Amino acid sequence: MIASALLVIDITIVSVALPAIQSDLGGSLAALQWVIIGYTITFGAFQQTAGSLSDRLGRKSMFMSGITLFTLSSLACGVAPNAVSLDVARCVQGVGAAFVLANAMPLIAQVYDGQQRNMAIAVWGTTLGACGAVAPVIGGLLVDLTQWRYLFLINVPIGVVALVLCRKRLPATPATAGTAGIDWTGAGLLVIVLGLVNFALTRGEDQGWASTATVVQLVLSAVLFLAFLLLERRVTAPTLDLSLFRVPTFVAAALIAFFSRFATVGGSVYYILYFQSSRGLSPLQTGLIMMAVFAPQLGMGLVAGKLQAKYSPSHIIGAGFGILALGGLAMFWAFDRDNSVWTALPGLLLWGVGGGLAGSPSMSLAVNVVPKERAGMASGAINSLFMFGAGIGAAIFGVLFRTRISDQADTELELSSGTHDAVVTSAAQGDITRALENVPGAIAGQVRRTLESAIADGAAEVMLWAALICVGTAGIALTLVRKQDLLTGAPEKDTSDDPAAEPA
């Protein structure tokens, strides 16, 4: 939990420090954005490979190697003399983070069984959710009270503590096989594929989604992925065993992982823009109102762990996504400039309750349908899909959001083509102040009102589509998750004597 918390915090904590880093190290803003982009790309690219290697080389050693790499690269980030050194260290830090996260859930799965496993994963997942929620606040405090370098240097003593605890507490996990026979070609191909896709998703908005660069990156990713799949059918010890996808519940776990992040992470970007850009709330005020999501989400994560002792995961996950859908519909109705900002509160609460209820059993589903010796491979696949879902969701919702703003600007504003594009681009990024710099002062008030209304309408449309995706995800859970596939999951109520009983 300590090691996983570190890497989750580092995903978002640095974003608040970019201006301070630029002031200290110099360099362009584009170069410094690689402090975030580089970490995200390598973190996503190495998930599957890290998980699969851990199954063969021993999880404890791979986990501790990940912590060591993460800690040393954090030190390198903290003492970086220039922007390039910092960017390189962050890329290495992402690799270490991938080896930590890919092994965390398999280690839990190895130590615990049945309901104890479900509760351990629930506590672990809830802790990570809490860390992700408070990371921007921690980052802001460290930057205000000290300097940006401590965002990284603080990881060093915590990483050392995590390593000491690993040596004392984690059970030995001897390698099941040596390095001979490892699918190095497949592992390398998959790292390139995941890296390219993550790069395209991260840079797509700046490059242009229809630009030659983005299209080439995605097409090349697809070709290499096809080559990877063909290779995996031929090797004896594949990086990703495709036979796992013959198990309906594993397929469900994969689809739920993808669509859950598509809807929740992809949607969250735009309801935050609604509060800050359309309603004019400060970052602090937005953070406080977001507690309506985070607080019930954390609490319901633990409740969901307890519920798995009595109820099928399909029903818990289905109910969670049903509540998420209700929350999305409530926000679709509430996101309007004519409504009080507080009308969004019921939707946010439902969004938090549903996310917490669905989250814990969704995370444990994949490792509960594979033998312990394949848990790393399963965890890597699910973690990769989590990141894909978040990136693709943000991208597709971003197109919907921008289109809505563009259409409303076309209808209500008379702007030249160049001015229109500049205004819409700035508004779609939530920066109305920069959008107004492109228009004459005489119409600035009208443009502001139009853009605030358009952002509200765009966020409402995003939440409507997010709600529909949640309904579909609930359907996946209820139809594909099968009790007979669960090897070490929660105990089920005995319904053998009940003629009306239905399969989970």
Question: Overview of this structure, please?
Answer:
There is one protein chain. The protein is mainly alpha-helical and 504 residues long. It folds into 3 domains: 1-172, MFS general substrate transporter like domains (Growth Hormone, Chain: A, Up-down Bundle), CATH 1.20.1250.20; 190-236; 240-488, Up-down Bundle (Growth Hormone, Chain: A), CATH 1.20.1250. The chain has 21 helices and no strands. It has helices spanning 2-12, 18-25, 29-32, 34-45, 47-57, 59-78, 83-111, 114-145, 150-153, 155-169, 184-207, 212-232, 248-278, 283-289, 291-307, 313-334, 345-365, 375-412, 417-428, 432-436, 444-480. The protein is globular, with a radius of gyration of 23 Å. The protein starts with a helix and ends in a 24-residue tail after the last helix. Mean pLDDT is 83; it is low at 488-504. Keywords: Antibiotic resistance, Cell membrane, Membrane, Transmembrane, Transmembrane helix, Transport. It is a multi-pass membrane protein. InterPro entries: EmrB-like (IPR004638), MFS (IPR011701), MFS_dom (IPR020846), MFS_trans_sf (IPR036259). It is found in: Cell membrane.
